Amino acid sequence: MATVALSGVSKRFGDTPVLDSVSLEIEDGEAVVFVGPSGCGKSTLLRLIAGLDDPSGGEIRIGGRDVTEVGPAERGVAMVFQSYALYPHLSVYENLAFALRLAKRPQAEIDQAVRAAAETLAITPLLDRKPKALSGGQRQRVAIGRAIVRSPEVFLFDEPLSNLDAELRGRMRYEFARLHQQLGRTMIYVTHDQVEAMTLADRIVVLAGGVVQQVGAPMELYHRPANRFVAGFIGSPGMNMLPGVLEGFAGGVARVRLAGGALVEVAADASAAVAGAPVTVGVRPEHWRRDAATPNALELPVMFVEALGGVAYAYLTAPDGEGQLVVQTPGDLTLKAGDRARLGFDPAEAHLFAEAGPAFPRLGRD
Ligand code: ADP
Ligand code: MG
Description:
Strand order of the largest sheet: 6-7-8-3-9-10
Number of strands: 20
Helix content: 10-25%
CATH architecture of the largest domain: 3-Layer(aba) Sandwich
Structural class: alpha+beta
Shape: elongated
Number of helices: 8
Order of helices and strands: EEEHEEEHHHEHEHEEHHEEEEEEEEEE
CATH superfamily of the largest domain: P-loop containing nucleotide triphosphate hydrolases
Bound molecules: adenosine-5'-diphosphate, magnesium ion
Radius of gyration: 24 Å
Distance between the termini: 34 Å
Strand content: 25-35%
């Protein structure tokens, strides 16, 4: 059983707090992704779990055992870094075998483990090559293979795809998902890329400024973001944020006067707020409607349009006349720069946030 449990884990470098009381329970075999902007503390948290750094406070348990004071080699974890430094003078085979040779395992066992890992990663034909004769994606696979041969209870990945080009990242993302299914081991994966987080995770942990913002299944975070930060971070392009003032809450609907004057309705429980409170209405690009019957209709100038084929993104001047708003439309829908577009959104699909950021409970549908 390799559960990972963090309880009140903090880290400071000198006087600078980097992680603030992180508590988290990861189940055996679960794939958990830590996601957040650069500098939010993702790598630091992973290094604490790996035992490469000591926490300033709190407790870390792996498989039920308190490992807070245990060295990295005794934790049953293997970590793969963004910069996957392979030994340049060793063949792929010897790179894979390295940790087991160091541990003085018998040759038959080493050979079996190396060949099994190579099969899993489809790099068997490369075993005799040196790293310099490999592509970036192949090197990344060897780095993952070095972790697999050690048969750890927990895999730790720190932005393993960051050095690869966009197309390869897409393919490797799929391979990671497959690898997790195949190995069935607990996996903690760090990335700043919300697409990687959405596609790989059983559960996502969103971090910002060293504080856990929300933990949940990908679609839970998409449908019910706990605050404005998570709402803006999960989903691409990001959620449109429209500033306004709460006019009232009745019948399960909050009425909001948007900056610019329009009155809109959001199915959110704003009973905890007073009329006149500053709020933000959140509407995802994919939730705008252009049909004649749309509620919350607004008329906005189109600034430019990105036609991607299957879909197009229209960028419009926001209702406050200053900000910008992104609307997803079918690819062959002909909006063009200079048009005034009439569009709106369903109150049940919008989000509402208090001034400090927390979301009002949604009363709409998922
Ligand atoms: P992320 O991986 O999310 O980009 P990190 O965990 O690497 O972020 O870093 C979080 C913060 O801690 C950053 O502000 C970084 O500058 C700081 N930091 C990381 N390692 C050290 C260190 N060894 N000494 C001082 N500050 C550090
Ligand atoms: Mg990092």
